[in-house]
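Changelog note: in this version the structure field was regenerated for every chain. One regenerated record is shown below for reference.
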Amino acid sequence: MRGFGDLEAVVMDRLWSAEQPVTVREILDELSSKRRLAYTTVMTVMDNLYRKGWLTRELDGKAYRYRPVSSRQEYSAGLMREILAGSGDEMATLLQFVDRMTDEEATAIRAALRRRHCVDTTES
């Protein structure tokens, strides 16, 4: 897993925000108000994301409709896992991360760990 390139990130942001699968034209129309892009550029980016496994697509008439394979949160969690694994000292890095959490984030983590512990003990 790796981070997206600049245009890939913008396209994925739009796809994650969409409520339904979208076409290249729909993404291009959304992006054209902020930057000048060619249809083929957006099509290539979306095709690359599809080939990399980040998007699924289905034919709708003559155009494909694309949707993300995973949620923004799943993607972010994967990046966090990768960064933690590459830190050289996962435990020290994790503890540094925890030290920087807000009270609200710490409460959410404690609740998630309690749920995980309950699930782990009932499966044994």
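Spot check on this record: The mean pLDDT is 92. The helical segments are 6-17, 24-31, 39-51, 72-85, 90-99, 103-123.
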